[in-house]
């Protein structure tokens, strides 16, 4: 994984694994999204989330990845981002309560 971190979430879509958000020393509340392809054993950096966060949840439904909640700057987030993986990982939708 190109970005070492903890507190990340992971989801699988189409046989590829997505490492989402997290935190690392000096870089809290990461927006980074990285895709792992087990077939080729390669990592690819994808478009970042709109909201950096760690200790979040992620789930796949209907081919979309949902990044849910998490923590940013010590505060709990009530934000959900949904996006469709593809060549450019586009289609972010932001839901906020």
How would you concisely characterize the structure shown here?
This protein has strands at residues 9-13, 16-20, 33-37, 42-46, 57-61, 64-68, 71-72, 75-76, 79-84, 90-96. With 97 residues, it is an all-beta fold.
Write the SSE topology.
Layout: E1 9-13, E2 16-20, E3 33-37, E4 42-46, E5 57-61, E6 64-68, E7 71-72, E8 75-76, E9 79-84, E10 90-96
Antiparallel strand pairs: 1-2, 2-3, 3-4, 5-6, 6-9, 7-8, 9-10
Can you walk me through this structure?
With 97 residues, this protein is mainly β. The chain has a single domain (9-96), classed as Thrombin, subunit H. Helix content is 0%, strand content 48%. It has no helices and ten strands. A four-stranded antiparallel beta sheet has the order 1-2-3-4, with no helix packed on it. Strands 5-6-9-10 form a four-stranded antiparallel beta sheet, with no helix packed on it. A two-stranded antiparallel sheet has the order 7-8. β7 and β8 form a beta hairpin. It is globular. The model has no long low-confidence stretch (mean pLDDT 89).
- Helical fraction: under 10%
Strand order of the largest sheet: 1-2-3-4
Assembly state (oligomeric)? single chain
Number of domains: 1
Report on the biggest sheet.
4 strands, antiparallel
Rg (CA only): 12 Å
Query: Beta-strand level of the residues, as a percent range?
Result: over 45%
**Silhouette:** globular
Give the class-level CATH name: Mainly Beta
Tell me the number of helical segments per DSSP (H or I, 4 or more residues long).
Answer: 0
Rounded average pLDDT: 89
